[in-house]
Amino acid sequence: MPVETDVLIAGGGLVGASLACALGQAGVRTCIVEALSADGDQPPGYDERSIALAQGSQRIFAGLGLWSALAADACPIHTIHVSDRGHFGFTRLRREQEGVPALGYVASARALGKVLQQGVQQLDTVEVLAPAQLKAFHVGAGGVQADIEHRGTVTRCTAKLLVAADGAQSTIREQLGIRTTRRDYRQTAIIANVSTDRAHNNVAYERFTDSGPLALLPMTGQRSALVWTVHEQHCEEVMALEDSEFLQRLQQRFGYRLGRFTRVGKRNAYPLQLLQAAESVRPRLALIGNAVHTLHPIAGQGFNLGLRDVAALVDVVLDACHSSRDFGELPVLQRYADWRQADQRRVALFTDSMVRLFGQSLPPVAWLRDAGMLALDICPPAKRWFGRMTMGRAGRLPRLARGLALK
Ligand SMILES: Cc1cc2nc3c(=O)[nH]c(=O)nc-3n(C[C@H](O)[C@H](O)[C@H](O)COP(=O)(O)OP(=O)(O)OC[C@H]3O[C@@H](n4cnc5c(N)ncnc54)[C@H](O)[C@@H]3O)c2cc1C
Predict the structure, then answer these.
(1) The Cα angle at residue 298 between residues 307 and 244, in degrees rounded to 5
(2) SS3 state at 148
(3) Are the C-beta atoms of 229 and 298 separated by less than 8 Å?
(4) Within 10 Å of residue 383's Cβ, how many Cβ atoms?
(5) Strands (E) located in 71-222
(6) Does residue 229 have its Cβ closer than 6 Å to ligand 1?
């Protein structure tokens, strides 16, 4: 049966599902098309990785009425500790200095996905087609027509707006011929949950080492989420290590701030790149999340940035609805693109600069960056800026990111 909707979202990963929740709650008819089955072996983006949610993202989840369902699985971050292995530099950010109950929260992508799915299922304004694939689309004057392969047949879907939330390999972006700038970091992030014999006390550690950055994020159940970046040529070897050897290697890299590493869970590896799309809107089309910016996880910003795309796009769509305008028109969508551009560029630059700066082992560069870290630690305005970046509070914030409900 043909589907007629207001907004068609291609990709039901964390970002696409968040958008569907927000639009559906505001009464906008929405259809998500997701290639993977939610209860399959490889659910969409809801894998073993842990996501550091900025304080701004926590507000968005609260505004969507989903925070109470997630809170039990989300561990608050009270302190962020950044250090440079083998050098003198370090800096800390504390919740007391920022006057907030937590600088952010750590939740598993799986828990986030589950809460979003439940949120979507409660809405009769949202239709989910999964596993299904957006195969082709055509933009006409009054709407978009898309062909969706679902349960062995092709369904035609008509919408006012098509949103590409189809991730870093976005086929919609490719089909539109939107230019991208890419940087292959030649690094892989190895993730796993680990246990230590000392409590994490809600401290998130970011440790820069000569072989790449290593993050340990506090989790519920006194576990920590490890994100260990290694050069791509070492990935296979590190992934193949016996658990005991892996923990020993990790201990050498990280040190004893959390005591001894006692246990490691399943490991997964993610090749890393920076990708930025040159355009995020066309008539009746908008790109959000990883489809428009894919970042190195060094600063834990990718999903947070995508969630702010969601909040801004929702504001623009709802404003258009309130003034009886067609939200698929380019001038309306351009508001979203203009609004998001500065934040997207700033966070990509911040993240990429960190990778480059801490990838340098030349002594003068190492000395300067360590001096910079210490200066950051003792200079209140610099620290406030760092805090705003980390907590997702920089720039003009959409309604949801200010903690306001949509209705
Ligand atoms: C190791 C690691 C750690 C990270 N840590 C953090 C962190 O701490 N904090 C943070 O904010 N971010 C973090 N990120 C980034 C975050 O995971 C991503 O930014 C976020 O998951 C992107 O979500 P997305 O929905 O945009 O894209 P994706 O998760 O890639 O979802 C895209 C979806 O689209 C579907 N799809 C694609 N094409 C089609 C099609 N034609 N038809 C139908 N469906 C389609 C795919 O199946 C997929 O489910 C991390 C990333 C990595 C790799």
Answers:
(1) 120
(2) strand
(3) yes
(4) 19
(5) 75-77, 79-84, 90-94, 104-108, 126-129, 132-139, 144-150, 153-159, 161-164, 180-196, 203-209, 212-218
(6) no
Mutation to probe ligand 1, out of 290, 304, 308, 350 (largest number of atoms < 8 A from CB): 290
Q: Residue 262 belongs to what H/E stretch?
A: strand 261-264
C-alpha 316/C-alpha 330 separation (Å) is: 12
Radius of gyration of the chain (CA): 21
What's the CA-to-centroid distance between 250 and ligand 1, angstroms? 26
Ligand 1 contacts CB of residue 190 (under 6 A): no
Distance 45 CA to ligand 1 centre (A): 5
Centroid of ligand 1 to alpha carbon of 168 (angstroms): 7
Measuring from atom 9 of ligand 1, which residue has the nearest CA? 300
Check pocket membership of 304 for ligand 1, CB cut-off 6 A.
Answer: yes
Q: Is 86 helix (H, G, I), strand (E, B) or coil?
A: coil
Are 172 and 134 in contact by the 8 Å Cβ rule? The answer is yes
Distance from the alpha carbon of residue 309 to the mean position of ligand 1, in angstroms: 14
- The verdict on the CB of residue 167 being under 6 Å from ligand 1 is yes
Residues 6+ apart with CB under 8 A from 368: none
Q: What are phi and psi of 222, to 5 degrees?
A: 55, 30
Q: Is 188 in the pocket of ligand 1 (CB under 6 A)?
A: no
Handedness of CA 301, 298, 269, 217 (dihedral sign): negative
Distance from C-alpha of 43 to C-alpha of 40, rounded to nearest angstrom: 6
pLDDT tens digits along 235-278: 999 999 999 999 999 999 899 999 999 999 999 999 999 999 99
Q: Is 8 in the pocket of ligand 1 (CB under 6 A)?
A: no
Does residue 289 have its Cβ closer than 6 Å to ligand 1? yes
Ranges of beta strands (E only) in 151-199 are 153-159, 161-164, 180-196
pLDDT one-digit tens code per residue, 130-171: 999 999 999 998 899 999 999 889 999 999 999 999 999 999
Q: Are strands 203-209 and 212-218 parallel, antiparallel or unpaired?
A: antiparallel
Is residue 330 a contact partner of residue 35, using CB atoms and an 8 Å limit? no
For the entire predicted model, the pTM comes to: 0.93
How far is the centre of ligand 1, averaged over its atoms, from the C-alpha of 278 (Å)? 19
